[in-house]
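Methods: example folding runs. The two proteins below were folded one after another, and each record is reproduced exactly as written to the output file, sequence line first and structure-token line second.
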Amino acid sequence: MRHVFLAVRWGCIGLTAIVFLGQLVMVLMRYLLGIGFLEIQDAVNYAFASLVALSVAVAFDADRHVRVDVFRQKMTSATNSWIDWFGDLLLALPVFCLMLWTAFPLVRSSWAILEGSPETGGLPGLFIVKTCLLILPALVILLTLTRLIGKFRRGRS
């Protein structure tokens, strides 16, 4: 599983480079040369959408996600560990299962028509970007189940 999240992390780094360089090229071409390419704009949009979706799983894996720690700093690490366990069980798991369930029809229909850019002359392949709506919850569910099972096993021994 570590290899999967390492691959996703490197994918996010690549997507960040595409967003940065694509946006830089678009701005330079538009303001210095007076031309623009819809394909570059679509590539930046696709990369950014994929980056946003996949970086959620990377942040969750690295435990760098946003949380409100008003009381956390005054609690013991064992208490915080149990709060994380219950949060994973009662919040993360149901929310991402629901996200997976509701995103599946959207992604399936997008693949059925091989959906492309809504812009005339834009890039094909929007269906691949929409697949990130399934990859994100699947990764978070796998990570959450791994954490829950790990905590359960440590608690029993």
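Second run, written to the same file directly after the first:
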Amino acid sequence: MLGADKGQSASLDGEDLAIGIVRARFNDAITSKLAQACVAELAALGVAEKHITVITVPGALEVPVALKAMADSEDYDALIALGCIIRGETYHFELVANESGSGVTRVSLDHQIPIANAILTVENEAQAWARTEEKGRDAARVAVEMANLMDDLL
């Protein structure tokens, strides 16, 4: 929903955090821009470049398994899923959107690691481009906020 009030955390400090990012290459121009916005926002929040790891996978369905490998390493305070699924003429859109989202959530819950899910699910390429930069920045902010929250809770 446009204009939605997402609220704002009082303080987003990423100084001592390690963040892992998994980016799907499918719709590469869009996901590359999503990753650029995300990494730039992480840097603005104080996450050191050397503590940001970006890996790529073929598509959104492969994102969860790469996230699981990163979570298994226990090297990260939070993870970020980036991708772009554009509706086509077949049921494939629903399958990829539902299964990738379910996989991301399962990894997060199984490993008790926050994962900011910025796998875009859109009707067309124009919608994807309209959301790319904002969603990349949002994912960075969510990852930092949730990593700090989990540190406080655990």
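Comment on the second run: The radius of gyration is 15 Å.
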